[in-house]
Amino acid sequence: MNEFRYRSKKTDEIWLLSYADLITNLLIFFIAMFTVADVSRARMEQIQESLSGSAPALTLKSIKQDIEAKITEQGTNELIKVELSDRGVEISLNSGLVFPVGSEVIEERWKPILNDLMVKIAPYASKYEFAVEGHTDDTPIKAGGRFVSNWELASARAHQIRHFLEQGGVPGSKLRVESYGETRHLPEAVLQGLSPEEIKSLHRRVIIRIF
What we know:
Distance between the termini: 70 Å
Strand content: 15-25%
Shape: elongated
Radius of gyration: 26 Å
Number of domains: 2
Largest sheet: 5 strands, mixed
Number of helices: 9
């Protein structure tokens, strides 16, 4: 009789093991989902490539390589820099060359080059989103000018590049414009050894981000 009770009690508690396993698996699942949600597309593509041993035909890494080849072909290394980060492919345009001081009007000599670049990157919109970021240095805007602050100047320049992207074939639904004025400083490691004017020049930029 005692043996029967022992077996019955042991049998009744078996479901607790299955329940504990279920809770553990659910916890692992939600942790994994949370982790994936916080991973950028660039990082996710790196993970997929590591797991599969091969990369898809179009990735942010391949886009960076294509754009670098285009820049070399154009001979515009002084004007355009390309980086791949967790934020995506960042195409940085030296706005000190593209725009006159205090103006959002693109210099005529750069328009054909920029248009050629935009046509090149437009097909990437089939898979990726685009953001255009306007940045300035910390030189205050002169009173009585066209813009009341660096925010407006940065925004106006970013919209000019956004217009070129749309003309090149990027749908407006894939685009967004962001203005940061002088608030987004470059890392100190990038600025070491540079003169004050060189530092200002680096901060004057418009970034096209593909992500």
